[in-house]
Amino acid sequence: MIEVVKIGGNVVDNPDALSAFLADFASLPSPKILIHGGGKEATRLSKTLGIKTTMIEGRRVTDADTLQVVTMVYAGLINKRIVSLLQSLGCNAVGLSGADGNLIPAKRRNPEPVDYGFVGDIDAAKVNSDMLYSLFNGGFTPVVCAICHDGNGLLLNCNADSVAGAVAVGASRLGSVRLTYCFEQPGVMRDVADSNSVIPMIDEAGFEQLRADGIVDKGMIPKLHNALRCARSGVSEVRICSSQALLGSSGTIIRSER
């Protein structure tokens, strides 16, 4: 089983939580891949540099200055911090962007109806599975940030959840894949104020009903859309859980009806 794990910014920004999470991740049997973003760190650096941060519906507008910041933060500071911590745990990690080894080609998003700037969309079919195979075969654990490229020399800022999903689908061409999204909640909950209200399993019909009932909304909708797309595209299992539950079985399992 290939493990693909996406880590949320709440863990990336918390040194103690990050150390605990990475200890669990390092203990997973290989092959495995870690995907990360780092939006809060990018926002802090932008403020320090006097660069305005603009968000539309929770998504960062990436102008030329912001692209430089997110590349420095995601592909540099955060990526290498995680790699060095994993190395200290005996996990032979290698830090990558989507441009390295042509791992994740992307296409700049259409500026209509909303221009997000240098933001990319990914076709999972173009993820370089041969590159992943070579890394696994060499005993390496890829740590991948959300900076991709268009094949013509342009870097693009991509959504880290989408990167994780595309990489999981690409890895599924090599074997069975489990994709785990770790974030600040214990799973998808019927009541966000009640940590015991985790929904154990969601399929496509269930998702539509939960959305119609207003139980899932806002940022959870694209997360579940992405998870269901992965489940339809060859990923064996998709789980949404707390970063503290990586080694357990709690959380919400997403399944396709195919």
Describe this structure in words.
The protein is α/β, with parallel strands linked by helices and 258 residues long. The protein has a single domain, classed as 3-Layer(aba) Sandwich (Carbamate kinase). It is 37% helix and 21% strand. Strand 9 (147-149) and strand 10 (155-157) form a beta hairpin. Helix 3 (39-49) packs across helix 4 (64-88) and helix 6 (160-171) packs parallel to helix 8. The longest helix is centred in the first third of the chain and has 25 residues, at 64-88. It starts with a strand and ends with a strand. The mean pLDDT is 94.
The CA-CA distance between the termini, in Å, is 21 Å
What's the SSE pattern?
A: EHHEHEEHEEEHEEEHEEHHEE
- CATH uppermost class: Alpha Beta
Task: Please name the fourth-level CATH homologous superfamily.
Answer: Acetylglutamate kinase-like
Number of helices: 8
CATH architecture assignment name:
3-Layer(aba) Sandwich
Rounded mean pLDDT score: 94
**Strand share of the residues?**
15-25%
